Hints:
Blueprint: H1 2-29, H2 33-65
Helix pairs in contact: 1-2
Amino acid sequence: MGGFVIILPFLSIMIGLYFITLGLWELREGVNKSKYVKYMFTGLFLILALTPLIGLVANFINFQLR
C-alpha cells in the first residue's frame, strides 16, 4: 500500500501534463475550442488540486500507521 501511495502523485502529474499537452494541441489546430477547455482544465485540476490532495491523504495514512 505504501508504494502505491508514493506513485499516485507522480501518475497524477504525468496524466495532467498529458491532458495539458492535448489541450495545447487542440488550440494549435483551432478546430474545437471546447476540447481545449476540457483538456486544459482537466490537466490543471490533476496537477494543482488532486496531487496535493493525494499528498495530504498519504501523509494522513502514514501518520495513522505509526
